[in-house]
Design goal:
Length: 341
């Protein structure tokens, strides 16, 4: 996938992609700058805890601003849960953590109705999903029935219990971690559930210098270690709404559709990226642009996130392939599609 330093950046200017039809509401530049500085403070704080993972941190913040959920896939012990808990602390979010196991039931996540003999009625007791940030550890160790309990929540920000819909918190985000397929006791997530995640990210091992710094930083290992909040959730919701006003030129929308269509016609692909995927790619590009301090989207924003948004939404014809194989196919698709100028 082309990097941000490729020719595509130098060959275009913001003026060549001026707004046409999706102009944002009037926003004071100084107000935007103040809001973005708060996100930059959160980014710096996360980089102080999770060393050498700036790209993953940027992707996580992009998903947060785009109101999307994230699937972190990697081997145990690389900091997936620590990253999620640190984000919740910095944003002063109410978070719940679920350790997924084969005997976990949907009611353990959503909640259930409890009969009250004194009144002869049922009272609904909320489950851990009623929070701002839900951390689902090792989600692919839960049974498919339990995994499906998250589908409505991630798609519609609500859950339905006994026919009654219950709205979830605003903001609401799911950060799910999973072990690579092939580990003992795992159930692969079906395509319908993978499609609900905005990004699938991989933490990978830290580089040598970052791991040395991690070993020598004793504060992180303290039992009471907790990051001080840098942003409250009211301001976060305001930032998420601001993302919706980031200008998207028609050429950018056409570029996104071309990328998505290419995955549907590629002979190596059995199932291409869905229309939901194209919408999420657009929203993530808006969030990425705002994270970089712009209120308009460039093709570079789309290129920077295309693999993370689309690779888990395509299914290859070859059986037994890994997520890395799908990512390589999407990278080749991105390189093959002409960039708008």
């Amino acid at each position: 996938m082309p990097s941000q330093e490729t020719e595509s950046r130098t060959s275009r200017s913001p003026e060549s992609l001026a707004p046409e039809s999706l102009a944002p509401e009037s926003l004071a530049p100084e107000s935007v700058e103040q809001e973005l500085q708060q996100i930059e403070n959160v980014r710096q704080a996360l980089q102080g805890v999770i060393r050498g993972k700036s790209k993953v941190i940027d992707s996580l913040l992009t998903a947060l601003l785009a109101e999307g959920s994230v699937l972190l896939e990697d081997v145990p012990g690389v900091g997936k849960t620590t990253l999620a808990k640190s984000l919740a602390s910095l944003l002063n979010l109410e978070f719940q953590r679920i350790q997924c196991t084969p005997d976990l039931l949907p009611a353990d996540i959503l909640g259930s109705s409890i009969f009250q003999p004194a009144t002869g009625t049922f009272d609904f007791r909320q489950g851990p999903i009623f929070c701002d940030l839900l951390i689902a550890d090792e989600i692919n160790r839960a049974s498919p029935r339990t995994q499906s309990a998250l589908l409505e929540a991630m798609a519609e920000s609500q859950v339905t219990i006994d026919g009654t819909p219950y709205p979830l918190h605003q903001p609401f985000m799911v950060i799910a971690t999973q072990n690579p397929n092939g580990f003992e006791g795992t159930y692969p997530l079906p395509e319908s559930q993978l499609d609900r995640f905005l990004f699938r990210l991989s933490m990978d091992y830290p580089d040598q210098e970052s791991e040395i710094e991690l070993l020598l930083d004793r504060s992180i290992d303290e039992p009471g270690f907790r990051l001080e909040p840098l942003l409250d959730k009211e301001r976060l919701v305001a930032l998420q709404r601001m993302v919706r006003h980031v200008t998207v030129d028609r050429k950018i929308a056409s570029y996104i559709v071309s990328l998505v269509n290419a995955t549907r016609t590629d002979t190596r692909v059995r199932i291409g990226c869905s229309p939901r995927g194209s919408k999420m790619l657009l929203r993530a590009a808006q969030a990425r642009a705002m994270l970089d301090g712009r209120m308009f989207v460039l093709p570079d924003d789309v290129q920077a996130i295309a693999v993370d948004v689309m690779s888990h939404r395509v299914s290859l014809r070859t059986s037994g392939v890994s997520s890395e194989d799908a990512a390589l196919v999407v990278q080749e698709v991105v390189k093959a599609i002409e960039v708008p100028v």
